[in-house]
Amino acid sequence: MKTFSKIYMITVFLFLYAPIMVMVVFSFNGINSTGLFQGFSFRWYEELFQNRAVLNALKNSLILAVLSSLISTVLGTLAAVGINRMRHSWIKGPTMMLTDIPMMNPDIVTGISMMLLFVFVGKFVLGGNSIMGFWSLLIAHTTFNLPYVIMSILPKLRQMDPKLTEAAMDLGCTPAKAFVKVVLPFISSGVIAGMMMAFTLSLDDFVISYFVNGSNFQTLPILIYAMTKKRVRPTINALSTIIFTVVLILLIITNAVQSRGEKKNIKKKGIRQ
Amino acid sequence: MKKLAVLLLVALVIPLIVSCNSDRPVVYVCNWGEYISDGLDDSMDVNREFEERTGIKVVYDNFTSNEDLYAKLKAGGTQYDIIIPSDYMVERLIAEGLVQKINFDNIPNYVNILDEYKNLPFDPNNEYSVPYNVGMVGLIYNTKEVEGVPDSWEILWDQKYSGKILNFKNPRDAFAIAQFALGLNINSTDTKDWDAAAIKLVEQKPLLQMFVMDEVFNKMETGEAILAPYYAGDYFTMAENNPDLAFVYPKEGTNRFVDSICIPANAKNKENAEKYINFLLESDVALANAEYIYYASPNKTVVENPDYLLYQDEITYPSQEVMANTQSFTHLPNELIEYMNRLWSDILMK
Amino acid sequence: MKKYESFPVSPVEKKRRRKRERQAALITSPYLLWMIIFTLIPMIFVVYYAFTDATGAFTINNVKGLLGLEKETQNVIQSGTFIRLDFVKIFWRSMWYGAVATVVCLLIAYPVAYFVSQMRENRQQIIITLVMLPMWMNFILRTYALMKMLEDTGIINTAFTKLGLPVIHMINTPFAVILGMVYNFLPYMVLPIYSVMSKMDYSLIEAAQDLGCNRMRVFTKVILPLSMGGVVSGITMVFVPSVSTFYISQKLGGGTNEMIGDVIERTFLTETNYNVGAAISLVLMILIFICMAVMNRFSEDESQGGSIIV
Known about the structure:
CATH superfamily of the largest domain in chain B: Periplasmic binding protein-like II
Number of helices of chain A: 11
Mean pLDDT of chain A: 87
Order of helices and strands of chain B: HEHEHEHEEEHHEHEHEEEHHHHEH
Radius of gyration of chain A: 23 Å
Number of helices of chain B: 13
Structural class of chain A: mainly alpha
Order of helices and strands of chain A: HHHHHHHHHHH
Radius of gyration of chain B: 22 Å
Shape of chain B: globular
Oligomer: heterotrimer
Shape of chain A: globular
CATH topology of the largest domain in chain B: D-Maltodextrin-Binding Protein, domain 2
Distance between the termini of chain B: 56 Å
């Protein structure tokens, strides 16, 4: 069983990472192509660090992904707890339908309908001031992230025995404290999964961003899609490779630190996994 | 760990807030991607150069197609000062009042524009637009796989090359190929002509490998496909990577387009926009752009400069004979556009 | 849910329940407010467009035109049919591809989630991040890379040729499209299932084993029902977006395996016809709702958890 699970996991990771490897290889291309490989060079890495537009777009994308995933995680966690508690309420059905809409609409429909909303608000509520830009992007990203956060927390909550919270409150916890001490630790894996999905979705969104973006906050996907008028330069491969490597190194360090901590614990306290 | 995350967040947000609070004059520019010299490989960084010469900050953004740009302008949520749509879209934007007249007194460099690019049909009185780049569609083919020189669009219907042929993914360009093959006017207002072209495209569909835009680069360079209609300027960058590729203007004629600089009706920094336009027409700036983009320049000082990389290049600046055989898109009546789109949709879904 | 109501409820319990509901409504309210403003109101725009024409007058022709019920919408390419079969075909194809991709994702993801949940706790987080990491690379680059692998002159076929095997045509086929969908949505299946499986109550599994259940029965009677909530979430998060996806089918399907997402995108952008575009997406939305409702009927029987949607 052990070997089977190892082989299985390796196969799945090969599937997930084969295209990433292709992408990495092309970042070292000697020529300006993402389809044909000739010669080996670092020229795309050199170019990347001179390219203000790409670096700026990367910064914008990261800001947006971090903030929108945080906001949607907070809002979404509260909402999931609330929805889970609504056992008999008539409001539950409509709430869940509402949750499905952003997932269900093709991006283009979400993008254009939100653009219309922001234009409408700008024209009639704010007296002609455009709010399109950073704030509209943040709102849009948070909105399409929310269902994913809720979807990944709800099953976790359903798994939990509601009596646990009640017991905590009987023992004198305020509802807020009971939430932090009892509920949150239990659902943490769902919360983290949701936040990670939100971050990922936000980082990669093009269509919705394109339409709700004003004129002053270009994100990386917008920049890259615009390149497709001509060709996507391997500079983007270089950038992706760097992001990939940095995350990978961070993961390896975390792993090493944690396993060392574990060994210490075992020595000190004699605890075993 | 948590503290670190908070710190990281603060570090990310602060520059954002700070960058919002500057009173420097600005100009908001929205251009095609990869459509301006950006300072790489010792070229000129046009936007930075403009900032240094005038002190006006350039906020630069990209659009992905004429139609995307139109959708955004029509909704009215954006505030660009400069946009660079293609000819037929300029005409539509003028017709719908989405662009404003340019004050040519502020653009003395307009004298640099070649006469043949003045008074173009989409802006007959030269009021709304300044030409930026000129492109032509031709046939790109792989000399190893295709016998002889294919001088006719008909080769895109040749059974022999079935599965190795590409065509444009946008309706106007794809229809134009069929119309040229049939000897029709690409701006015909007779629906019968469009029906004929549609039938021609349906005939082609089983032979096609795929409808493409940017994929054409990879597909042609690797030899996955061997025949494709595409823009002359882009052929150069493909041929750089695959010397087996060749380019030809078919005898039936071809499409020429002019991407032109316009100022949207809701622009807030019109004077800065005019300064920017004037700057783009400077001879050194126009030269840098022409050498970066590889499309034909409408700028006299570039075309007549013997040091220009593409000076008298036969593909970029073809003979009078070829030029006489070109047509440009005009903005069709809305009902006809709808008719064409409907045909296109049915072709794709077929 | 009916069975709970049928018990006589004491007044104290009733009061407690009402308080619970009030609390629930209170903590959900920021979310609800957010979704009403940023989802429901934009949806009203969509409905408005779907039932008006270019001049803003009410019409049902957009929906009718979709079905080809109007004579004048017919042309040289499409003629003589009462219903626009192409639309039906494309709706069907999208649903079908989406369903296949979802099933494949589920089959791949379920064991992954299980194996990860069996690992040491701090390793779990790392593996899960590794599952997500490929999706942090830009979508276009990932799709280009998949294209490069699947092409006739691509990496896989070049390797095949070198080994003396025949070239297998993969690009621009339904296989390539579905593969692209599986690739892009797999993590959205792994994560929810994993999160339910971690910290699953393993005493139940042990109890079942003690009671003489074999592996198969432990799985079907204990593990599967306990993880059902995550499975349902995963199915929703893969099926729903994959039905409406567009870019993948254009790049990997070559434009000959059009999906409804492509049609909607084209209607909005190339044709700038918001009215028909909105009508198509409304129909799509209703179809997806029906699919999800059907799925929930089935999953309700199996899980103790109950429905997620509706």
